[in-house]
# Entry
Amino acid sequence: MMAFAGVSRFQWGRLLSFFILLVAVNEASAIEWNGNNWAHGCDFTGGDFSRAAIPGKECGGRCAATQGCTHFTWTRHNGGTCFMKRGPVSKANAFSTSDQSKVCGVIHESTSSPSGGRMVGKTTRYWDCCKPSCAWPGKAAVSSPVKSCRADGVTVLRDVNAVSGCNANGKQAYTCNNNMPWVVNSNLAYGFAAANIKGSDERGWCCGCYKLDFTSGPINGKSMIVQVTNTGSDLGENHFDIQMPGSGVGMFDGCTSQWGLPLSVWGQQYGGVASRQDCFGLPQAIQAGCLFRFDWFMGADNPNVQFVKVKCPAELEARTQCVRQ
# Structure
């Protein structure tokens, strides 16, 4: 081995280790992360536990929807393969490659928290028909505010300053019908929620997505990925109020003005309708979201969760047209 004058083998070994580390750091810093969580021309070593033959744009969403997936790599292997990975990870673990068609990303970046980055929270449910808080401009750095709709629940309003249907006068904007939850598979569903997350505010959570792993009640073991579209002064810390038609109007009622139905049809102010049969008294356009509560959600009453922030599935962003920048 070539040696420099006055440098021992031990000192040379330490210098060599330093240079190797410096090269690794420079490689990681050369990766240009898009939206803070994915990039082109990068990969992770090991951790593979599942794969899917899907387009690259769907790989992040598939990982977020797969139990245990923390990060991923997509390559052109076999016409396009998403390699789902698990285990403690951060963006610093990624390495750059010469193949710019590769895509890698982090869904769940490890932290020093004892639960591996997940936090404990609680859930409730509601459907007040009001214009969501994140539908107002200037709430967060997003592509556009959450879409709100006319009273039919379908026609999207272009005016982001349209008056909420929960105001006393000038009612214009309501929650869009497609903000109700839906089933992905027997153990996973997508939906929307109002939230209050400790250490953050609307600038940090509007249009962000969170994976809720239920830890109590009949749906213990199931998960939902929700996009946060609203907040509420009545929410405690780490509290997700999941949107489900017929689950109670809560503090505000826009449903009677939107649909012209008496408040009694919507059930208790907090909690909503009492049975699956009561769902058929709601407007037909949103009955499926009410039935979701008694079917996939198994009538669970405010189950506890462990939750973590994840990349938003494209299906959720497509409904709200709100993407965090």
User: Anything to note?
Assistant: The CA atoms of residues 9 and 154 lie 73 Å apart.
